[in-house]
Amino acid sequence: MKNTDTPHLQRSLGFTSAISIVIGTLIGSGIFFKQGSVLENAGSSSMAIFAWIFGGLITLTGGLTVAEIGAQMPETGGLYAYIENIYGRLLGFLSGWMQIIVYGPAIIASVAGFMSILMVNFFGLGPEWKIPLAVITVIGIGALNLLENRVGAAFSVITTIGKMIPIIAIIVFGIGWGHYDALGQTMTTLTHNHGGFGVAVLATLFGYDGWILIASLGGELKNPQKLLPQAIVGGILIVIAIYTLITIAVLKFMPANQITALGDQAVAHLATSAFGPLGGKLLSAGIIISMMGTINGKIITFPRVVYAMAKRQDIPFAKTLTYLTPKGKSPVLATGFIILLATIMMFLFDTDRLSDLCVFTVYIFYLLAFFGVFILRKRNPNQARPFSTPLYPWVPIISILGGIFVIISEIQNDPAGVLLFVGTVVVGLPILYLVKRYYQGK
Fold first, then answer.
1. pLDDT tens, 2-48?
2. Is 0.85 surpassed by the pTM of this model?
3. Residue 427 burial (CB count, 10 A)
4. 15-441 adopts what CATH topology?
5. Which residues cross the membrane (predicted)?
6. Label partner for 249 (CA 20 to 30 A): which of 70, 119, 180, 220?
């Protein structure tokens, strides 16, 4: 007999919450802070615009491919659950371990790090305040998510609406009042960091990353077979259009060499130049809110992966990490675990490097998921598919080629960082062995 008293996550999230989480998670720091990096590596304004579009298409093909899997496996855990169901416990564990030890904390730390740059400027503080402000913000948003899941989802809706104000302002002013040609500007100076088009695309993928996180809430969506693919595909398409327009707006307002010279301050400079000191501050406040929404989306989702792994007794302290608050049914201790790791990473890693490495690491497992569509269709040819990837098999093939492109580009760009992050993932294997021996011996 089923024990109805066992704590469980609530299926209370609808389409508005789902697509707001996707858009809110995607539109964060990447589009505002990666303009200089993308442009410098691409080498020209035309190639920079193409890099943002190309990165979006890679993301879209990946979203269309994973949406087919997600509609068949509407479970809490997302990528972790998909990889386990397709490839077995070992690879499933590694994908979950990667998300909770490397990718999740790293991406929260990197977004918070970028956000704190704006916060320091906004409040007129010294650079020594960047990490403390980032930590305080992450803890505050984490505390919000210890309430009922609808509270965090509502915050995603509010911040998604709020972030559209600075986005629309930048697009309208840049395109309407800019005096430069967005196409055809060539870089006259390139630094030693110039890595080529592949690294430029890799930088855009940090801006697009997060689309799969809604899958981690599969156990909390009202109708996951229908809502999951709608939220993933619809959200990605909207974000591609927004990112392309913002890039064009920035390039029309400032020459290419000035954008690369300003680096992560390019969009902030546009805001101040366009709207004056007060208007620039208001616009910066909107961007800060945007990033808070991104952090919120990630803090909503990654503790669910911790929760799903702990339920399977795949990680230490499983009983503790599966604890849900009596009223809100929120994974409070799993949330605290993710926040703790993110805080540690803020002190240990450079924000920009961290963003590239976390994208590389997750794409290793994205590739496994992309191949998984072919495996599932062969394994279960007659199984009903609530959502089928359009233009099969070409869309999954493109997503696979895109994933390979990302991995090779980052290996060439930062082999030492790649080795560190891959090593951290592999360390999970002996930990899994010890944990299983412990639980079997009880």
1. 444 445 555 556 777 777 777 777 776 677 778 888 888 888 888 99
2. no
3. 11
4. Amino acid/polyamine transporter I (1.20.1740)
5. 12-33, 45-67, 100-123, 129-147, 154-177, 197-219, 231-254, 282-310, 331-348, 354-376, 391-409, 415-435
6. 119
